[in-house]
Automatic annotation (TrEMBL):
InterPro entries: Ala_racemase (IPR000821), Ala_racemase/Decarboxylase_C (IPR009006), Ala_racemase_C (IPR011079), Ala_racemase_N (IPR001608), PLP-binding_barrel (IPR029066)
UniProt-annotated catalytic positions: K34 (proton acceptor), Y260 (proton acceptor)
Lineage, broadest ranks: Bacteria, Pseudomonadati, Pseudomonadota, Betaproteobacteria, Burkholderiales
Gene3D superfamilies in the cross-refs: Alanine racemase, Lyase, Ornithine Decarboxylase, Chain A, domain 1
Protein name (record): Alanine racemase
Family the entry assigns: Belongs to the alanine racemase family.
Domain of life: Bacteria
Record keywords, A-Z: Isomerase, Pyridoxal phosphate
Length: 365
């Protein structure tokens, strides 16, 4: 028996305030489906977010898969193209590319696309990963406009990425850099990831005729980008449920231990269940005793160390459970993926993305 995961599409939430001035409109949505839709499957993400205005991802192969599976709306490559062959595919499949380095601009200058390529020129406003430094950005944007005049580029937009939209520092400092450096430049704007879209919806609104795009990711799958606010507080519902079943039970005496390393010791007589799921399925090995699990609809806890293919649960709260009893490891009828991640000292993103290919997937409407 193996664990199973049920994946369904999340809903796209409209976070913009209703009404308002005519010049202020809700942004368009890039639904981020990188890392195989955060472990849910590339095509499943494409189908689930059919209402989105566009899709965003890192992997060129995933972009081509979406095009070949019928997606006709915009696709954004979040890290852009890295070699001429990538540009040829971006041209053929009509992909929008992020441009974050001089080398990418140089490569574009040598390109001869059949149709002008749409790009977003990225500003490093403080994340210090990708993007042009503040003192180089306007020159890079101006060069992109020159390439547009030459017919190489089409739309030339602006973007940045917030490092602390989910933290107390917020976005003010980086937003100020963006406004000072790029605020008066022409072209579409893309600023907000999941955390910024949820916490600062006002900065994602399109103003003064400039087209605005948000780039929500983790929140689309029903997980929270915040350590201090759960998904339910935003009305988000989990898109993935990881389920399995009990395959064996054991009756323990006081002093008996469980699993590798004997990390759990029974203090009194108790009954435990062995669940067909382990770290080879993507369940975190570093989850310890007390991590929440639901057995037959009753909340209980993990015991001891997670093995490659199995883990143990406390059946004290659910004495009727036996072999075949359903187990929810995270999802709609179990603990949230964020709860499990917190107990394991990580974040929900990692658990969703780490789902193993050996786990059977059942997709529901």
């Amino acid at each position: 028996m193996s664990s199973t995961v049920t994946s369904s599409a999340g809903a796209l939430a409209d976070t913009a305030p209703a009404g308002g001035p005519a010049a202020v409109v809700a942004p368009s949505i890039w639904a981020v489906i990188k890392a195989h839709s955060y472990g849910h499957g590339t095509v499943q993400g494409m189908q689930g977010f059919a209402a989105a205005d566009g899709l965003a991802m890192l992997d060129l192969a995933e972009a081509l898969e979406c095009r070949e599976s019928g997606w006709t709306k915009p696709i954004l490559l979040l890290e852009g193209c890295f070699e001429p062959a990538d540009l040829e595919l971006a041209d053929r499949y009509r992909l929008t590319s992020v441009v974050h380095s001089r080398e990418q601009l140089d490569m574009l200058a040598r390109a001869r696309p059949a149709q002008p390529l749409d790009v977003l020129v990225k500003l490093n406003s403080g994340m210090n990963r990708l993007g042009f430094a503040a003192d180089a950005y306007r020159g890079a944007h101006a060069r992109a406009l020159e390439l547009r005049a030459q017919g190489i580029l089409g739309s030339v937009g602006r973007m940045t990425h917030f490092a602390n939209a989910d933290a107390a520092q917020g976005v003010a400092a980086q937003l100020r850099v963006f406004q000072q450096v790029a605020g008066d430049l022409p072209g579409p704007v893309s600023l907000c990831n999941s955390a910024a879209t949820l916490r600062y919806p006002e900065i994602s609104l399109a103003r003064g005729g400039a087209e605005s795009w948000v780039r929500p990711g983790i929140c689309l799958y029903g997980a929270s980008p915040f350590a201090d606010a759960d998904a339910a507080s935003f009305g988000l519902k989990p898109a993935m449920s990881l389920r399995s079943a009990i395959i064996a039970t054991q009756d323990l005496r006081p002093g008996d231990t469980v699993g590798y390393g004997s990390l759990f010791t029974a203090e009194a007589p108790m009954r435990i269940g062995v669940v067909a799921c382990g770290y080879a399925d993507g369940y975190p090995r570093h989850a310890g005793t007390g991590t929440p699990i639901v057995v037959a609809g009753t909340r209980t806890r993990l015991l001891g160390r997670v093995s490659m293919d199995m883990l143990a649960v406390d059946l004290t709260p659910v004495p009727q459970a036996g072999i075949g009893a359903p187990v929810s490891l995270w999802g709609a009828d179990g603990p949230s993926v964020d709860e499990v991640a917190q107990a394991a000292g990580t974040i929900g993103y990692e658990l969703l993305c780490a789902l193993a290919t050996r786990v059977p997937v059942r997709t529901t409407p």
